[in-house]
Amino acid sequence: MAARQIFNPDGFKNIIVDGKAVGFEFQFKAQYYRGFTLSILHNVSVNVDGWDAAREDICISVHGETFTLDQALTVVDSDYRWEFGEYATIKVKKDGGLEPGKHHIKAVQLIVPSYMPFPTEAVCETDFVIE
Fold first, then answer.
1. Taking a C-beta distance cutoff of 8 angstroms, is the pair 44, 107 a contact?
2. Distance of alpha carbon 20 from alpha carbon 78, whole angstroms
C-alpha cells in the first residue's frame, strides 16, 4: 500500500512581493483522522535545513483566508475547517526566502482536541526543491 501524500510536491515556493522574496510557503495535509476547526491547531513548527522559523512568522491559509497561529486558535467558524485529505498552505516570513536548490523540511503539527486527554503531535519531513 502506498503512503498517503503529506506534502504537495508542487506547493514549495518562495513568496515574492514587489519582486523581492519575503518568505516561503508549502502545502501539507492535516495528520489527524478527520477534519477540524483551526481552533484546535495549537502550533505548526517549521525547520528547514536546521533553521527554525519563529512562531510569530508562521501563518496558515485554508479556504482562501490566512491566519497567524495565534489567530487560528480563535477560529471556530466551520467555513475554515482543515478537512481530512485537504492541503493547507503554511506561509513563513523569511527575508530573501529560500535559496534555489534542494532543502529538507521538518514541520510538526500540534493539535489539542477538547475530547482528547492529551495533545496530538505529528512530525512531517521531506526533501524538496526551490527553483
1. yes
2. 35
The pLDDT tens digits of the residues spanning 71-89 come to 999 998 888 899 999 999 9
Long-range contact pairs involving 65-68 (C-beta distance under 8 Å, separation at least 24): 66/91, 67/38
State the CB neighbour count (10 A cutoff) for residue 117.
5
Domains of the chain (ranges plus CATH)? 13-130 (2.60.40)
Helix %, strand %, coil % of the chain (to 5) = 10, 50, 40
So what's the pLDDT on residue 79?
A: 83
Q: What angle do CA 82, 88, 50 make, to 5 degrees?
A: 125
